């Protein structure tokens, strides 16, 4: 029942009486659903609907805590702060105040922590914040393998800043977008991509035989480019692939490696419903 400290994760603290309404008008998911024990996975987009950052929203004691990439926490606080105007809200990079953990495989968070099930998939486990690191029996690398096995993106390099659209990363099926809450920044492109069937590429989990290609390495079939590699570890990874290339099955080339794509059970494709 693994518990892993995630040193690459940080926290942005959002306080003030307008904190929920403030975020609600900016991010992709319904922030009103965040509550003690209930996390919301969401993203901040450009006005053109391209990915900037994603994070888990946890609620606790009159504040919202955004579990995000640590190296982007200060920039996320700054980016959100540009829209504060007259809203009664304060934002700060609180990464130094928290240790961020993932628990999975049936492990439960200990008392005295701020915790919620990972809202993307039940198999993903729990997100846990604590004032000090918890005893760990797994590494961040082991958690990385776990989330890759589930086909879950982990921010950059799986998503490209100011280029990726949410539905490429599974944000629809993985509960990262609200289709009913009302307007937010970048909503128009996100909705148009869904309702007009404009999605041509998706992130797919892949088995990697051979040296792990770095992110951005082209993926080919019979010499024609069909996508590019994203994150990878220990023989598995994620690749952004043309949907028809993944559905066709078989092996793909990526530098000196051979990739075998897999369609996870949770994924909805035009010709396939989730298991």
Structural summary, described in words:
This protein is an alpha+beta fold and about 280 residues long. It has helices at about 20-25, 75-80, 140-150, 185-195, 245-250; strands spanning about 5, 10-15, 40-45, 50-60, 65-70, 90-95, 100-105, 115, 125-130, 200-210, 220, 225-235, 235-240, 250-255, 255-260. The strands form three sheets. Strands 11-12-13-10-15-14 form a six-stranded antiparallel sheet. A five-stranded antiparallel sheet has the order 3-4-5-2-6, covered by helices on one side. Strand 14 (about 250-255) and strand 15 (about 255-260) form a beta hairpin. The model has no long low-confidence stretch (mean pLDDT about 95).
| N-to-C span | 25 Å
Give the count of helical stretches. 5
Which spans have pLDDT < 50 for at least 5 consecutive residues? none
Helix content percent band: 10-25%
Order of helices and strands: EEHEEEHEEEEHHEEEEHEE
Q: Give the DSSP E fraction (strand runs of 2 or more residues).
A: 25-35%
Mean pLDDT: 96
Largest sheet: spatial strand order: 11-12-13-10-15-14
Number of DSSP E strands: 15
Largest sheet entry: 6 strands, antiparallel
Structural class per helix/strand content? alpha+beta
Globally, the shape reads globular
Topology of this protein?
Layout: E1 3-5, E2 9-15, H1 19-24, E3 40-45, E4 51-60, E5 63-69, H2 73-81, E6 90-93, E7 99-103, E8 114-117, E9 126-130, H3 140-150, H4 187-195, E10 201-209, E11 218-221, E12 224-233, E13 236-242, H5 243-248, E14 252-254, E15 257-261
Characteristic key phrases:
275 residues, alpha+beta, 6-stranded antiparallel sheet, 5-stranded antiparallel sheet, globular
